[in-house]
Structures are given as C-alpha cells and as structure tokens.
Amino acid sequence: MITDQLSIVGLFSEELNRELTINQAAKLLGKSYAFTNNHFHEMADAGILRKKAVGSALLCSLDYRNEETRGLLLLISVRRKRQFLAKAEQRRRQLLTEYADGLTQPGVRLAYLSGSTLTVVVDAAEPGAKRDLPPSKGIDVAVMELSAFERAAKRLDLSKTIILRNHEAFWNIMASLA
Q: In this structure, is the dihedral angle defined by the CA atoms of residues 57, 2, 171 and 27, taken in order, positive or negative?
C-alpha cells in the first residue's frame, strides 16, 4: 500500500500544482484504471489527494495541507536524494554531502541542488551571509533569502530538484505556496 501511495504521490511531486485524471495517472503508472481509481479514492478519503469533477472526468491533485501528504513527499525526496548521490561521481558526492552537512549556522533553512547550483535558503541574507557558510570547494553555491525562495519556488522544476538539507522545511514552504 505505501509503495503504491509513494508511486502516485511521486507523479504529482514533479510539479507544484500538478493535476491529473485517474486515466492519465493509470497510463503514467502503467497500472489498470481500476487499480488507480481504487487508490485515488482511498487517498482522497485520507485527505492526501483533492479531487474535482471536470465534465465526466475526475481531476486530482495533492493536498499539501495534509500532514500525511507532506510525509510521503518527504520520503520521496529523501529517496530521490539517496538515488542521486549513489549515481554521482564519488568526488562530487563527497563535496555535496560534506557541504550540506556543514550547514548548521543559525538562519539556514534548507539547501537544494537544481542543475549544477546548490542553493542555500536563509532567513535573511545579510551582507556576510555567504561568508558565514562553509567554503564551497568547487561547488557553485547561491544564497537566497527565504522571501526570494518563496517567490521563485513555484517555478522550480521539482523533477530536477534534489533537496540536500531539511526536506521537511522545503515541503512545508511548498505547501504554503500551493
């Protein structure tokens, strides 16, 4: 059951406000309409999915306000990070892991990798904010204020975003924007 829920939530996790019909999701999952329909209704009853009728179709999306939804998103993003790091070249994996693990300064909210840039989101970008971060050692690092991240987050390609630090904060912010 949890594997099926993760697969379904994974479809929606690639875009912030993605909507799919049950038929579209069944095709993407490679599952039958009946299987997908059953799971969609169970997940809607649990508050994980929202549904609305559009003509004869049922259009579904994630309900980010639901704690279980955010928990499933968190698990998906942790697995995505693990898979990404497992495939990364050893030196890059080491650099990214050490850098993200070193982000313990007050005010650091989260860190994510999008393309080749590691973005560190901070409460307030003071003139010395980047200076207070660990040396980047060959990683392209950008520092972004939380308010700027909130404005930019809707445009993030979530399918190509790897959360490296504080998955929970990332999804809570995304939930506030959805």
A: negative
In Å, how far from its chain's centre is CA 34?
A: 28
Query: What domains sit in the chain, N to C, each tagged with a CATH number?
Result: 2-62 (1.10.10.10), 85-177 (no CATH)
Question: What is the gyration radius of the CA atoms in the chain, in angstroms?
Answer: 18
CA angle 56, 14, 155 (to 5 degrees): 105
Residues 72 and 4 sit within 8 Å (Cβ to Cβ): no
**Block means of pLDDT (10 residues each) for the chain, length 178 residues?**
88 90 94 94 95 88 94 95 93 88 86 91 68 69 90 89 95 90
Q: Specify the residue for token string 């939380």.
A: 146
CB atoms within 10 A of CB 17: 11
Provide the whole-model pTM. Answer: 0.87
Listed in sequence order, the DSSP H helices in the chain are 2-12, 22-29, 33-45, 67-87, 90-101, 146-152, 167-177
